[in-house]
Amino acid sequence: MSRACLADGDIELCARADMDANGAMSADYSIKGLPLALANVFAPEDLPLSISGILEGEGNVQKTAQGEWQGTVELRSPTGRVERRIEGEEDASETLLSYARFKAGATLSGRDARASVGASVMDGGSLRGEVSLKGLGEASTGLNGSVAIKLPSLAPVTVLAPQLANLRGQAEANVELRGTLQQPDVRGTLNATDVALDIPAIGLEL
Description:
Elements: E1 4-8, E2 11-19, E3 25-35, E4 49-63, E5 69-85, E6 93-110, E7 112-121, E8 125-134, E9 142-151, H1 157-160, E10 165-179, E11 184-199, E12 204-205
Antiparallel strand pairs: 1-2, 2-3, 3-4, 4-5, 5-6, 6-7, 7-8, 8-9, 9-10, 10-11, 11-12
């Protein structure tokens, strides 16, 4: 299959994929200047969120007929934010989450894979994660990894719990991944400080 591209101004999406009858395949892609705002059309009507930012990246992957993989994939976004529109106030919004220098990537080598993700979150927060897999396609695929998140504001939590208001505080979460992909062992810790919140539905202030 020849490489196909869609382009509009500064936006360009290109992809190519080939597959043989014996199961071998190869594929690649590239993304330039893709606005994350395109995802806003999928936001539920009862969740007035707005996403902004630019996504870029590229990747090249091959798989042999024996099921071994080779290649790299990467996605990047220099800056972005998630905002919630304030009802009753035209053109007013509240920033729930902002980030900078987002980067996610993966490297495939034979039957092993390694992936990582990182970003600066809001003012002073961070996201860092690494995961490795050994034995892709086998009955037992080894899993090893960790994820660490530091949130200087709990505002993003209100997306998952809209019944909360005036949520304040900071949180840090650390998760360890062990075991196998088929039977993962997930353990972690969560620490929150200076937490305060209101629950308007029942008139509770904490």
